[in-house]
Amino acid sequence: MNDGGGYLGNAKLKRSGVTISFTEDQAREFLKCSEDPVYFIRTYVKIVNVDRGLIDFDMWPFQEEMVKTYHENRFCIAKMPRQVGKTTTTVGFMLWSVLFQDDYSIAILANKGSLAREILGRIQYAYEYLPLWMQQGIITWNKGNIELENKSKIAAFATSASGVRGGTYNLIFLDEFAFVPKNMADEFFTSTYPVISSGKTSKVIIVSTPYGLNHFYKMWVDATEGRSTYKTLEVHWSMVPGRDQKWKEETINNTSEEQFRQEFETEFIGSSATLISGAKLRSMAFFDPIKQEECLDIYELPKEKRLYIATVDCSEGVEQDYSTINIIDVSETPYKQVAKYRNNKLPLLFFPTIIYSLCRRYNEAFVLIETNNIGQQVVDILHYDLEYENVYKIDHHHIKGQTISGGFKARSSFGIKTTKTVKKIGCANLKTIIESDKLLIRDFDTIAEMNTFVRSKDSYAAEEGNNDDLVMGLVLFAWLTAQSYFRDSTNIDIRRVLLEEQNMLMEEELLTPVGIIDNGLQEEITVDSGDYWSTRGISSSVL
Q1: 8 A C-beta contact, residue 264 and residue 253
Q2: What is 281-542's CATH number?
Q3: Model pTM?
Q4: When comparing pLDDT for 32 and 214, which is higher?
């Protein structure tokens, strides 16, 4: 064999155009490796061990199972603890894929481009330690790309909508996908799935440690419940040699119980200090819509003689916050979310038409629109131009220096301003009706927002980088359930229902009751919606 000095002077890399004459043993070995990726990785791939330096990759049983699963399935999703060699194992499989298959293209994506390039660097490092007779000649070799003489390629990108747009790939590897921001993950799949589905053998490998109840959580649940064709892989920390109870206790002492549960027990743990308890959030099941239209997910079609309420949050349609509509069936308890609209690209002036059409479909649903900023334009168009009558009309006046919603007077206007008092009552009531199963949420996006709707000073808001537009619609709905008009028009007094249930539980000695206390604030609430009116003093809220 003539190595010709190697690729760019690197004697460990075979340059293109170099011919090799295999011995009989090498030919048999090459053929065996091409048919068995596990054998190839165990025999020829070297890795760097923190304690031992450069060593052979002597895979653990679960790592062999990972490689077999990748080899035998098109779509794989792996939920893995920290530091179990999940990326290294995948590196070995990708190296096998480009060595023994011609014209095979791989895209490596991570939440940061530097991490994707680091993974590519591991492949390059392992490649250098392969025997020259097993290597393909090098055409391109840099920090972001590899191209081999057999026309196979590997490229590294940050996970984004534009990352692999326009390319054709046989395998896309998404590393630590749970840490990719949701909006970026959504845009990525919107732009990339056509690339993936264009072939019949193309593969997707998603590997991550959990990080909250986000898009990775949704994909994992969909896979485990058979709603997608992804093959699941799960590893427990105890499957790694040397990790025993003593190791667990030491790790918890050096970190925290919650961190261990997320990073090693691979539990899907949401943000801390959420309005809705973490235990409740983890137990909330989401469903696939029975029907989807543009930005609209329908979980239950309209039914005759059912009463629906729509809560609306408005945005400017510049791809930041979302314009949202929650449609809730309030005919009986538990209330049910039956449809959700969510769009961050819709021009504001088009939104009233969407509200009008959707509410008409749901039996002329009553509409509560937040009007703190641009929402006033929406409500004016909806009521005055489109002549939609069932819009809630609230009076905003001042009591003890605070703007709150109160009796119908000359200052009454359509829509509601989300004041501190409205938000405080709404958040308290929302927590109660969600955790007591009096409001059933079916939509994943809504549940995901609840997981990042956290305490902020003396209130609640979305964590930085997240949205709360759907949740704020529910906060307004929860505020509405405490108002006299809602009780009169639906014949449901949610506080009375809760109190009766608490008394029943007390009698059965199953639970300690949660009290209903007087907050000392007297409000006279008058809500105007179409032909319905009601005025009644309200002096307490559910906490």
Answers
A1: no
A2: 3.30.420.240
A3: 0.73
A4: 32
